[in-house]
Design a protein that fits this description.
The chain has 251 residues and is an alpha/beta fold. It is 48% helix and 11% strand. The strands form two sheets. A five-stranded parallel sheet has the order 3-2-4-5-6, sandwiched between helices. A two-stranded parallel ribbon has the order 1-7. The N and C termini lie far apart (44 Å).
Amino acid sequence: MNYTRRNFIKGGTIAGVSALAMTEIVTSAFAEAKVGKVAIGQNNTLLFQGDSITDSGRKKDDPNPNNPSALGNGYAMFAGSELLFKYPEKSLKVYNKGISGNKVYQLAERWDADCLDLKPDVLSILIGVNDYWHKHDGHYNGTVAIYRNDFKALLERTKKALPNVKLIICEPFAVPDVKAVDKTWYPEFPEYQKAARDMAQAFDAAFIPFQSVFDKAVKSAPGAYWTGDGVHPSLAGAQLMAHAWGEVVKG
């Protein structure tokens, strides 16, 4: 291959444009939502909580922070490793305690051990797609009202135990017309997304508009590029999520 300086510069320019396009996806998505910011302090403990999207194959018998296997192979690992890279002087501890299949009530059942006992300074929660998806498929008899009330109770319990915790609430998302996600998800699923946004506002939490991020991303590449089944992100989708997550934190 004749890899000349001209080709190198051309390739670098294309890569730069592509990276800029991805940044613009997130920037434009955030411009349309009230997201807030969370400051990362010295010796802070950060906790990612949620379902399989957060879990992403993490090694559950590893209780230690900052370990690659304990952080899984999804957005939590990408976002956490970026923080550890950017702020080595802060001595951060990053945990992932997501569990595949969880709905809000299942978070509540394990909340003492998997959240409150860790005393996180920053708590990020992505939960809700299973509260709808399992209902949609007939495996759960929940409603959006149950989701809203359970989420509210969980956050109240958290703030009571950890009054100074900084909250990040992530919007549950789905990419239409990719395998599991079809027209029957609508208009009900967006009601769960609204409930998550309402919780962020009620509890003064930073909010990550993942749905808007993915809606804009599919204009650059097909939905199946970002997610294999409409819900679980691909490698590119996980990186996209991590980039969006990083937009709400500051050193």
